[in-house]
Amino acid sequence: MDTPATSHIDKIRQQFTRQAEAYEAVPIVTDPAFLNYIVSISGVGTNDRVLDVASGPGFVAMAFAPHCREVVGIDATDRFIERARAEAERRKLANVAFQSGLAESLPLPDGAFDLAVCRFAFHHFLNPSAVLSEMRRVVRSGGRLVVVDMVASEDPAKAAYHNEIERLCDPSHARALPASEFERMFAAERLEITYRQTVHSAYGLKEWLAHGAPPPDRTARIYEMLEASLLEDKCGLSVRRENGEIHFSHVGASYVLRKSA
Ligand SMILES: C[S@@+](CC[C@H](N)C(=O)[O-])C[C@H]1O[C@@H](n2cnc3c(N)ncnc32)[C@H](O)[C@@H]1O
Fold first, then answer.
1. Which letter, b or e, does each residue of 3-16 get, where b requires 16 or more Cβ atoms within 10 Å of its Cβ?
2. What angle do CA 77, 78, 81 make, to 5 degrees?
3. Topology of 4-152+174-202+252-259 in CATH?
4. Along the 261 residues of the chain, how does pLDDT read in single tens digits?
5. Which of 4, 20, 157, 214 could be 218's S-S partner, Cβ–Cβ 3.0 to 4.6 Å?
6. Domain chopping of the chain, boundaries
C-alpha cells in the first residue's frame, strides 16, 4: 500500500533524478570554501569513520575523504549514488563509498561512526526527528553530528509562506524548520550543541528557480508570492528588487552536536 511516506520518497526520487545536474550546478553546492568550513567545524580526525546522510552528489563526503579514515554516503536517489561513485572514482578517492538507503532507517549498525553529517536535507524529511535519532544511533558515544540546513522564520505564518514557496519550486521540499525547532529536537535526543552559526545566502530568483525547474503556472505563483513580500515581509526571506530582478536570502544554520557517553 502507498503510505504518505512512500509517496514522499517517490517525489524525492523523481525530483532529484530529473534535476541532478541542475542541483550540482547551484554554486553553493560545490563551493570549496563552504565544504572546507563544514570539515573544519566538524573536528574530524584522521582515524575517523564518517557518515554523510542524504549525500546526494557526494560533494560533502568527498570533502571529508582526505581528512579521515573512511566515508560512507547514503542516499535515497540512485541517480545520485551512481554520479557520486563516478565522481569519487574520477578523483581517485579510495576511502569513499556510496550506498542506497533511507535516512529514517539507516542500514548501518549502532555506534559504527565517529561522525555523522547531513547538509541541505532536513527540509526534505517528513519525519526529521526520526532521521536525527538514526544519526545519533549510528554514532559512537562521544562522537559528533553535524547538521547544516536552511531554517525558516520563527514566525509560524512567515514560515508557512516560505515553505509554500519552496514546495512550489520543488515538490520534494517537506518543511524548513525554525532554528528553535531544530534545537528542541537536539535536546530531545540528548545531543549537546557545541557549535552553532547562521549565514545568509543570497539568490537571484531566476537563478534559484533553475534548481527546481517548476512548470510555468507554479513559477508565476512564486513570482506573485515573492512580489507580495517586497513591501511587507511575509516570509522572512529578506525579499528585495535589485536591478529589476527579485532577490532573496535563505538563512542557513550549521550545528555541531556531541553525543554524550
Ligand atoms: C538537496 S540534496 C542535498 C545533497 C547533499 N547532502 C548536499 O549537501 O549536496 C537532498 C538529498 O536528500 C536525499 N534525500 C531526501 N530524503 C531522503 C531520505 N528520506 N533518505 C535518504 N535520502 C534522502 C535526496 O535524494 C537528495 O540527494
1. eeeeebbebbbebb
2. 100
3. Rossmann fold (3.40.50)
4. 446 677 999 999 999 999 999 999 999 999 999 999 999 999 999 999 999 999 999 999 999 999 999 999 999 999 999 999 999 999 999 999 999 999 999 999 999 999 999 999 999 999 999 999 999 999 999 999 999 999 999 999 999 999 999 999 999 999 999 999 999 999 999 999 999 999 999 999 999 999 999 999 999 999 999 999 999 999 999 999 999 999 999 999 999 999 997
5. 214
6. 4-152+174-202+252-259
Torsion angle of the four alpha carbons 23, 27, 31, 35, in this order, in degrees rounded to the nearest 10: -40
23: its cell numbers? 542541483
The CA 74 to ligand 1 mean position distance, Å, reads 9
Contact criterion met (CB below 8 Å) for 110 and 81: no
Give residues (CB < 6 A) around ligand 1.
12, 16, 29, 54-57, 59-60, 75-77, 80, 102-104, 119-121, 124-125
Residue located nearest, by CA, to atom 26 of ligand 1: 56
